[in-house]
Amino acid sequence: MRVFTAVNLSLWVVLFVGWIGYSTLVGFGDPVSSRVMLILGLTAVLLLFLGFLRLRRRLRT
pTM for this structure? Predict the structure, then answer.
């Protein structure tokens, strides 16, 4: 399961870096940029929630 988290986090970072490059060229008001920003934000929240749950589970045992 940790492998999938590492892969997910690395893919998120690659998408984030690509989005920054795209947004600097096109602008943050672009519809594609706005959608990608929404997806990146949502997955960041979900990754943080997953990390919180794993930490809580580790502290209980």
Answer: 0.78
pLDDT digits (tens, 9 = 90+) for 32-55: 999 999 999 999 999 999 889 989
Instruction: Classify 35 as helix, strand or coil.
Output: helix
CA–centroid distance for 58 within its chain:
23
Percentage of residues of the chain with pLDDT beyond 70: 98
19 CA to centre of own chain: 11
Q: Which two tokens stand for residue 56?
A: 């809580």
Tell whether the torsion through CA atoms of 12, 46, 51 and 4 is positive or negative: negative
